[in-house]
Design goal:
Elements lengths: L6 E7 L2 E7 L3 H21 L5 H32 L1
Antiparallel strand pairs: 1-2
Keywords: Cell cycle, Cell division, Cytoplasm, Septation
Subunit structure: Homodimer. Interacts with FtsZ.
Subcellular location: Cytoplasm
Length: 84
């Protein structure tokens, strides 16, 4: 795919329809949407009083936390490889 070409999907996340555009393959975009939807349902089930805006922010905080933990582990593994 050329650098300027974009893929577009229409998907539903937590009951709302979204159009997601990106240079990644559509399977990747669908997977991202599915993970976000799943995480929002998981957090929403534990916090039923949250409105969708607060739920979205909590989901972003949780997913960023997970990302930073993975990034830290990745960097540790990279450092171990460089030192071996």
């Amino acid at each position: 795919m050329a650098n300027n070409e974009k893929n577009r999907i229409i998907t539903t996340i937590y009951g709302q329809e979204y159009t997601i555009v990106g240079s990644e393959p559509t399977d990747h975009l669908k997977k991202v949407a599915q993970i976000v939807d799943s995480k929002m349902h998981e957090i929403g089930a534990q916090n039923r009083a949250l409105d969708s805006g607060r739920l979205a922010v909590l989901t972003a905080v949780n997913m960023t936390h997970d990302y930073l933990l993975l990034l830290e582990k990745y960097r540790e593994l990279e450092a171990r490889l460089e030192n071996s």
